C-alpha cells in the first residue's frame, strides 16, 4: 500500500490542497514530532518556500529558550522541560528555607532530535534569518512516567508487534478511519500504518505530495471526531490560541509565513484562513512554569514514543536521517541496525556472522515488497532479525537477539548542551536543595551529621536527600555504620536471630558524613539526562533497578525498601503492580519470603518514623508471605549449604504470622503448609525439619512427642541431630524445656551410643545450644542431671555410677578435650 | 473434489482456489514457484471481500482464510521459503504448524505430499533414498533401482518438501539434512557419473515442524540450525478470532459427520474463553491461574466442542448446552495430568463462580452443570 492507495477522493485532495496553501504566502506544513521522512520533506520545502516568518507548534513561553536550543555546541537529543508546581503537594509544605527541597513538581518534556521537523525548521530559520514564533499554549502534558519501559527488555511478542487490544491512545490511533486503514494496509497498529504510509512509504514523494497525503489522512481522521470530543480534550481551545497567533503574524503585509504544526491541527487551522483577520490578539500566557533545556537520551525518547517499548528505534531513524542524501536511506539504516544487532549478539555468545546480516537484509527487503511497501521499515527490520537470527523458539532462544536488536534500534546516544543553556537543571537542583537543607559544606574535610528521623521533619528530608545522592553515586554523602546493605543501621543484619533487638533510638538515628568534591559535579554532569532534579534522577534509576530485578520478588522488594528510605513512596507505589506480578510469578519460596521479610522491615521502619500505615505495603507483604507459605513444600526440598538460610526465613514467617498486623499471613495457611512441608523435609534436611517443627511449636501447634521422635530419627549424617536441634531452637528456643520428650531423646543420645557418634554430632549440638540464653542453659543442665540420676549439687562429689561407667566417661572427657583443642577456630561463629 | 477420501491433500481440496489464484497472478514469482508470494499470502489468509474470476470463465470464487491470528507470521514464512534458507515452524501442539506447512507447500510448488514423518525410528535412508533390492540384485546399482525419498523427489522436481516432527528424529539422522540444505545437492555414491549426483531444481526448499514440548530444538546441531529460519507459532490470542474459527471448524466437521447440531455462540464462548484464560494463566478479570499441563490449543478447543456436539446429537437432547460443555471440558483438561483436574476445578470455583454470580447467563449455567457432574462423579 502506498500513498496513492489512500483512496482519498479527488474532492478531499483539492480541499486539503486549499487548506494547506503551500504555494500561497500563508502556508501550513503538517508534521509529526519525530519523523525522519517528515523532517527531510520539510528540509527540502523550506528553501523553496523561503518563509520570512516560521510559526512552530511549541508553547509560546518556550521562545526564551530559542538561543539555547540553537546553540551550535549542543548536540541532540535534548528536551525542553516545563516544571510546574504540583496542585496537590505530596506532603504539607512549610514555606520556609527548605522550600526547594520539598516543592512538589510535575514535569513535562518536549524532546528534540536531529530529525524532529520542528528543530529542522528552527535551524533553517537561524541559517536564513527568518523570524521564529512559537504559537501553542503551554497545556499540561501527562507527566513522563519514570518507570516507563525505557530499559525494558522488549519481549518477543511485542517485538513482533503484537499489541492486541491495546490502543495507541493518541488521536490517530483512536479513530475508526485508522482502524479501517490498518486492515487494508496489513498494519498491526497505527504506528506501523504511519510508518508504512508516511515514513518508508512517503520517502519518494515530493514535499508537497507528502504534505497533501498526510493532510488528506489527517482530514479524514479529523472528520471521525465530534466537535464536543475536540472541545472536551482541549484541542479546540489550543487551536483558537494558535489561530490568534497566526493571525498576528499574517497581519504583517508582504511577509511569507509558514506554519509548522501537527497534521490534525493544520487541516483545521488552514480552513479558517479567511477569518483569521477578524481574530483578537492572543492573550499573553501567564504560566508559572519554569522552562529549561535539558540533555536527553535515545533510550528515554524511545520510551516516550512508546511503540512496542524498546523498539521505537530512535537510532534507526537517526541512521535514516544521516543517510538522507543517499539513494535508499532505509536500506542503509536497516543494514546498520542489523549489523549492530549481530555485533551485540555475538558479544553475548550468539554464533552469527556477516552471512546472517546479508540474509536478514534480503529478507527484510522481500518482506517489505510482499507487503507492498516501497522501502524497508522498522517492522521489517525487527522481523528480519527475529526470523534470521533466532535459532530456536523465540521466547526461549530469542532473548539475546531481541535485547541486542532493541539496543541497536534504540541506540544509546546522549544529548549534550552548549554553554548557552547554562548549568544543567540537575546540577542546579542539587545545589539549591543541599543549600536549603544546610548540607553544603565548604570544600573542606568531611563533615559529620546526625539525623534523628523520628523527631524532626527536616532531618527526614535531609535523610531522603542524602540517601538519594548516595544511590546516585554522587560521592557526596556516606552513611556511617550502615552495616546492613539496606541501610537500616548496623544492627539487624541478615541472619541475626533477634532483628528487633536494637532500640528505637538507634533505628531512627542516622549518621552521615558529607563532603563536597569536584567529582560530585562531574557525576552530576554525567547524570544530567537522567532528570531535572536529584529526586527525579534517583526515581528513574530506582525504577530501572526494579526492572533489572527481572520479576524476582526479592529484588523488587529491595527496591521498594530503598525507595521508602529515599522518600520516593510514589515510585514505590508504582512498583507495587510489578512486585505483585512478581510475587505471583515467582516460584522460589526463598525469594518470596526474602521479599516479605524486606517489606516487613520497611513497614517497621515506617512505623518507627511515625509514618501512616500504608495499605498497599501491607497487601504486598501479605501476598508475599502467603505465596512463600504456599511454597514451603519446595523450601523443604532445600538441602546442603542453602538450607542454613531457611531457619531465618521461617523465623520471620513465624513472627509475621503471630504479629497478625495486616501484613502477616493467615495462621491456618501457614500451619497447613508447614505440616505438609515437614513430610518432605524428613527426607531432605534435618535442619529444615527442625525449623518447620519450631515454626509449628512457635505458632502453638507443635506436639511434644513428635519432637523427640524427630530428633531420634535424625540420623544418616553425624551432624543430623545437631542440625535438627539447631533448626528447632532457632524458632522455638524453649522447646527443650517445654517438651520433655525432646530432652529425654537428647540425653539418650549423649549417654548411650558410640562416642565417635557423639563426638561427630558435637559441633552441631553446640551450635544449636548457643541459641539458648544462660538461664535456659542452666535450667536444662539441671534437668538433664536429674534425668541422668545426678543431683545437681552432689553430681560432682558422689557418683552413683558403677566404676566402669566412670572410667568410660573420663576417657570420653579426655578425648573430648583433645578434640576440642583441634576444633579451635573451626567452630562456626553463631552470628555470621 | 475427492469426496471419498477422508482428508484430501490441500492442493486437491483447494484446487479451484489455487487455479484461480494462478490465473490472476501478475506479480513476479520466485524461480520454480507456481504462485507469487502475494498470491500465496492470499491463498492462506484469504481474499477478504474480493473475489477472483474462475479460470474456466464460470463465475467468481472467494479465497477463504485458512490460517488465523498471525498474518505477519505467514508473510515471514513465505519470504523464508523463497530464500536459500529452510523454514522451521516450532510451537505447542495444535497450533496448526502442520496445516500451515501443508498450505505453504501446496501453494508454492503444487504439492503437499512430499513429506517425511519424523520419529525416533527415522533413518538416514528414509530421508535420502533406499533401494529396490530385487532390481539391485539383478542389475547392480543403477538409477532404476534407486527408490527416492520424498526429499529426493522434491529436489529432483523443484518442489517443497515437508518434514514433520523433525526434532523427534535422532540428532545424527537430522544432520543428514545439513549437506542437502547447504549445497542443495544430494550425492548417491553408489551410482556412477551424473547419476551419482542430484542437483536440486529451483523451487526446492524444506518446511520442517517441531513440537515445542518434544525434545527441543535446542538439541539440534548448530550446523543444522543455521540452515533454518525459525518461526514460533503460537496459539491464537484474540478471543474473537479464535471463536470465529472454532465455530466454523466445528460446524464444518459436524456437517461432514452428518450431524445437524446447531452450535450456539454461548457454548463456543465458554470453551474458547476457558481455554484462553487457562493457557494465559490469567483470567480477564486479572485473577492468577495455574496453567494446566495439557496443551489447551485451538485444535483442542475444536475437538472438545465437536465431541460435545456429537454427544448431544447421539445421546442427548440434540441441543449443545452447558452440560455437554462442562463434561467435555473436564475431559479435555485431564488428558495429561491428574493435577490438571484440580486446576480446572479451581478455575471453575473462582473465575466461573464469580462470573456466574455477577452476570449469570451461560457462565451460571456452566457452573451449575459442572457442580451437577461433580455430584454424579
Ligand atoms: N491459527 C490457526 N488457524 C487456523 N486453524 C488453526 C489454528 N490453530 C489451530 N487450528 C486448528 O487446529 C488444527 C490442528 O492443527 P495441526 O495438526 O496442524 O497442529 P500442529 O501444530 O501440527 O500440532 P502437533 O504439534 O500436535 O502436530 C488445524 O487443523 C486447525 O483446524
Ligand atoms: Mg503437526
TrEMBL record, chain A:
Pfam families named in the record? DUF5682
Superkingdom, according to UniProt? Bacteria
The record's section on InterPro entries has: DUF5682
The name this protein carries in UniProt is ChaN family lipoprotein
**Species the sequence originates in:** Polyangium fumosum
UniProtKB/TrEMBL annotation, chain B:
Question: Which InterPro entries does the entry link to?
Answer: ATPase_dyneun-rel_AAA, CbbQ/NirQ/NorQ/GpvN, P-loop_NTPase
The ATPase dynein-related AAA domain, residue ranges: 87-228
- What Gene Ontology molecular function terms does this protein carry? ATP binding; ATP hydrolysis activity
What Pfam families does the database record attribute to this sequence? AAA_5
Matching PANTHER family, A to Z? MAGNESIUM-CHELATASE SUBUNIT CHLD, MOXR FAMILY PROTEIN
Protein's name in the database: AAA family ATPase
Lineage per the UniProt record? Bacteria, Pseudomonadati, Myxococcota, Polyangia, Polyangiales
Amino acid at each position: 500500500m502506498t500513498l496513492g492507495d489512500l483512496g482519498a477522493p479527488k474532492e478531499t485532495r483539492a480541499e486539503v490542497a486549499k487548506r494547506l496553501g503551500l504555494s500561497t504566502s500563508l502556508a501550513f506544513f503538517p508534521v509529526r514530532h519525530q519523523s525522519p521522512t517528515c523532517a527531510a520533506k520539510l528540509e527540502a520545502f523550506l528553501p523553496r518556500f523561503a518563509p520570512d516568518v516560521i510559526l512552530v507548534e511549541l508553547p509560546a513561553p518556550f521562545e526564551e529558550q530559542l538561543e539555547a536550543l540553537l546553540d551550535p555546541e549542543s548536540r541532540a537529543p535534548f528536551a525542553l522541560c516545563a516544571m510546574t508546581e504540583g496542585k496537590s503537594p505530596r506532603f504539607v509544605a512549610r514555606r520556609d528555607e527548605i522550600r526547594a527541597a520539598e516543592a512538589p513538581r510535575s514535569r513535562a518534556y518536549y524532546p528534540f532530535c536531529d530529525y524532529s521537523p520542528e528543530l529542522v525548521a528552527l535551524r533553517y530559520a537561524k541559517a536564513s534569518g527568518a523570524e521564529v514564533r512559537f504559537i501553542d499554549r503551554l497545556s499540561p502534558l501527562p507527566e513522563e512516567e519514570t518507570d516507563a519501559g525505557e530499559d525494558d527488555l522488549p519481549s518477543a511478542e511485542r517485538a513482533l508487534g503484537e499489541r492486541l487490544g491495546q490502543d495507541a491512545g493518541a488521536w490517530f490511533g483512536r479513530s475508526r478511519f485508522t482502524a479501517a486503514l490498518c486492515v487494508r494496509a496489513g498494519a498491526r497498529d497505527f504506528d506501523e500504518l504511519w510508518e508504512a504510509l508516511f515514513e518508508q512509504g512517503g520517502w519518494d514523494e515530493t514535499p508537497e505530495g507528502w504534505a497533501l497525503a498526510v493532510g488528506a489522512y489527517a482530514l479524514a481522521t479529523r472528520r471521525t471526531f465530534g466537535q464536543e470530543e475536540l472541545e472536551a480534550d482541549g484541542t479546540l481551545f489550543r487551536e483558537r490560541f494558535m489561530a490568534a497567533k497566526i493571525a498576528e503574524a499574517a497581519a504583517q503585509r508582504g511577509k511569507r509565513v509558514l506554519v509548522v504544526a501537527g497534521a490534525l491541527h493544520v487541516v483545521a487551522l488552514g480552513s479558517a484562513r479567511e477569518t483569521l483577520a477578524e481574530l483578537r490578539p492572543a492573550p499573553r500566557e501567564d504560566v508559572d512554569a519554569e522552562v529549561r533545556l535539558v540533555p536527553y537520551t535515545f533510550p528515554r525518547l524511545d520510551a516516550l514514543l512508546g511503540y512496542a517499548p524498546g523498539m521505537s528505534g530512535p537510532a534507526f531513524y537517526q541512521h535514516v536521517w544521516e543517510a538522507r542524501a543517499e539513494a535508499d536511506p532505509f536500506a542503509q539504516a536497516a543494514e546498520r541496525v542489523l549489523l549492530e544487532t549481530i555485533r551485540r549478539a555475538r558479544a553475548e555468545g550468539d554464533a552469527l556472522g556477516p552471512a546472517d546480516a546479508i540474509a536478514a537484509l534480503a529478507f527484510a527487503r522481500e518482506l517489505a515488497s510482499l507487503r507492498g511497501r516501497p522501502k524497508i521499515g522498522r517492522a521489517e527490520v525487527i522481523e528480519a532479525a527475529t526470523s534470521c537470527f533466532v535459532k530456536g523458539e523465540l521466547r526461549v532462544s530469542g532473548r539475546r537477539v531481541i535485547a541486542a536488536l532493541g539496543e541497536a534500534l534504540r541506540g544509546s546516544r546522549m544529548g549534550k548542551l552548549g554553554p548557552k543553556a547554562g548549568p544543567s537543571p540537575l546540577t542546579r537542583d542539587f545545589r539549591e536543595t543541599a543549600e536549603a537543607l544546610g548540607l553544603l559544606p565548604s570544600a573542606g574535610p568531611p563533615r559529620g551529621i546526625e539525623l534523628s528521623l523520628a523527631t524532626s521533619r527536616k532531618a527526614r528530608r535531609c535523610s531522603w536527600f542524602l540517601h538519594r545522592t548516595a544511590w546516585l553515586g554522587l560521592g557526596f554523602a556516606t552513611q556511617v555504620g550502615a552495616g546492613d546493605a539496606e541501610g537500616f543501621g548496623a544492627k539487624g543484619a541478615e541472619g541475626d536471630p533477634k532483628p528487633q533487638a536494637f532500640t528505637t533510638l538507634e533505628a531512627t538515628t542516622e549518621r552521615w558524613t558529607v563532603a563536597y568534591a569536584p567529582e560530585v559535579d562531574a557525576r552530576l554532569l554525567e547524570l544530567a539526562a537522567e532528570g531535572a532534579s536529584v529526586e527525579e534522577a534517583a526515581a528513574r534509576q530506582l525504577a530501572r533497578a526494579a526492572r533489572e530485578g527481572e520479576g524476582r520478588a526479592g529484588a523488587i522488594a529491595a527496591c521498594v525498601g530503598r525507595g521508602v528510605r529515599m522518600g520516593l513512596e510514589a515510585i514505590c507505589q508504582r512498583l507495587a503492580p510489578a512486585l505483585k506480578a512478581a510475587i505471583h510469578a515467582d516460584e522460589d519460596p526463598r525469594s518470596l519470603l526474602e521479599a516479605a521479610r524486606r517489606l516487613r522491615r520497611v513497614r517497621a521502619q515506617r512505623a518507627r518514623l511515625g509514618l501512616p500505615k500504608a495499605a498497599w505495603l501491607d497487601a504486598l507483604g501479605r501476598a508475599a508471605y502467603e505465596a512463600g507459605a504456599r511454597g514451603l513444600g519446595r523450601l523443604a526440598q532445600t538441602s546442603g549449604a542453602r538450607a542454613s538460610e531457611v531457619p531465618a526465613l521461617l523465623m520471620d514467617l513465624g513472627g509475621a504470622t503471630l504479629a497478625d498486623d495486616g501484613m502477616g499471613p493467615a495462621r491456618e495457611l501457614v500451619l497447613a503448609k508447614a505440616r505438609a512441608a515437614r513430610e518432605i523435609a524428613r527426607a531432605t534436611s534435618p535442619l529444615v525439619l527442625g525449623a518447620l517443627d519450631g515454626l509449628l511449636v512457635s505458632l502453638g501447634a507443635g506436639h511434644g512427642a513428635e519432637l523427640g521422635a524427630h530428633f531420634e530419627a535424625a540420623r544418616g549424617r553425624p551432624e543430623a541431630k545437631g542440625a535438627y536441634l539447631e533448626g528447632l531452637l532457632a524458632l522455638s528456643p524453649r522447646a527443650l524445656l517445654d517438651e520433655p520428650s525432646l530432652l529425654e531423646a537428647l540425653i539418650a543420645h549423649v549417654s548411650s551410643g558410640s562416642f565417635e557418634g557423639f563426638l561427630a554430632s558435637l559441633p552441631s549440638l553446640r551450635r544449636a545450644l548457643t541459641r539458648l540464653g544462660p538461664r535456659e542453659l542452666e535450667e536444662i543442665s539441671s534437668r538433664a542431671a536429674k534425668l541422668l540420676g545426678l543431683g545437681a549439687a552432689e553430681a560432682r562429689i558422689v557418683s552413683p555410677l558403677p566404676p566402669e561407667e566412670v572410667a568410660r566417661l573420663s576417657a570420653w572427657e579426655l578425648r573430648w578435650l583433645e578434640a576440642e583443642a583441634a576444633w579451635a577456630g573451626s567452630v562456626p561463629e553463631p552470628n555470621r | 473434489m475427492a469426496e471419498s477420501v477422508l482428508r484430501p491433500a490441500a492442493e486437491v481440496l483447494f484446487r479451484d482456489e489455487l487455479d484461480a489464484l494462478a490465473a490472476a497472478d501478475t506479480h513476479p514469482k520466485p524461480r520454480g514457484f507456481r504462485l507469487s508470494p502475494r498470491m500465496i499470502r492470499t491463498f492462506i489468509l484469504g481474499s477478504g471481500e474480493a473475489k477472483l474470476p474462475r479460470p474456466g470463465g464460470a463465475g467468481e470464487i472467494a479465497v477463504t482464510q485458512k490460517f488465523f491470528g498471525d498474518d505477519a507470521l505467514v508473510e515471514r514464512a513465505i519470504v523464508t521459503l523463497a530464500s536459500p534458507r529452510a523454514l522451521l515452524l516450532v510451537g505447542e501442539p495444535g497450533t496448526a504448524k502442520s496445516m500451515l506447512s501443508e498450505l505453504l507447500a501446496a501453494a508454492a510448488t503444487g504439492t503437499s505430499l512430499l513429506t517425511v514423518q519424523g520419529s525416533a525410528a527415522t533413518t538416514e535412508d528414509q530421508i535420502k533414498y533406499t533401494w529396490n533390492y530385487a532390481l539391485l540384485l539383478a542389475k547392480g546399482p543403477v538409477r532404476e533401482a534407486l527408490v527416492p525419498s520424498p526429499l529426493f523427489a522434491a529436489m529432483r522436481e523443484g518442489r517443497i518438501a515437508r518434514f514433520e516432527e523433525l526434532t523427534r528424529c535422532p540428532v545424527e539422522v537430522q544432520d543428514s539434512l545439513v549437506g542437502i540444505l547447504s549445497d542443495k545437492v544430494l550425492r548417491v555414491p553408489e551410482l556412477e557419473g551424473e547419476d551419482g549426483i542430484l542437483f536440486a531444481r529451483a523451487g526446492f526448499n524444506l518446511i520442517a515442524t517441531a513440537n515445542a514440548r518434544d525434545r527441543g530444538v535446542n538439541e539440534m546441531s548448530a550446523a543444522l540450525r543455521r540452515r533454518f529460519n525459525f518461526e514460533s507459532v503460537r496459539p491464537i490470542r484474540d478471543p474473537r478470532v479464535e471463536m470465529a474459527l472454532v465455530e466454523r471448524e466445528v460446524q464444518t466437521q459436524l456437517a461432514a459427520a452428518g450431524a445437524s447440531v446447531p452450535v450456539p455462540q454461548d457454548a463456543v464462548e465458554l470453551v474458547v474463553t476457558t481455554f484462553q484464560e487457562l493457557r494465559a494463566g490469567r483470567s480477564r478479570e486479572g485473577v492468577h491461574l495455574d496453567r494446566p499441563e495439557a496443551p489447551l490449543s485451538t485444535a483442542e478447543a475444536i475437538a472438545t466442542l465437536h465431541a460435545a456436539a456429537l454427544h448431544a446429537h447421539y445421546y442427548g437432547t440434540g441441543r449443545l448446552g452447558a452440560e455437554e460443555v462442562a463434561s467435555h471440558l473436564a475431559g479435555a483438561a485431564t488428558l495429561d495430568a491428574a493435577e490438571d483436574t484440580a486446576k480446572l476445578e479451581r478455575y471453575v470455583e473462582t473465575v466461573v463462580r464469580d462470573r456466574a454470580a455477577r452476570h449469570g447467563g451461560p457462565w451460571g449455567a456452566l457452573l451449575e452443570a459442572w457442580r451437577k457432574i461433580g455430584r454424579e462423579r
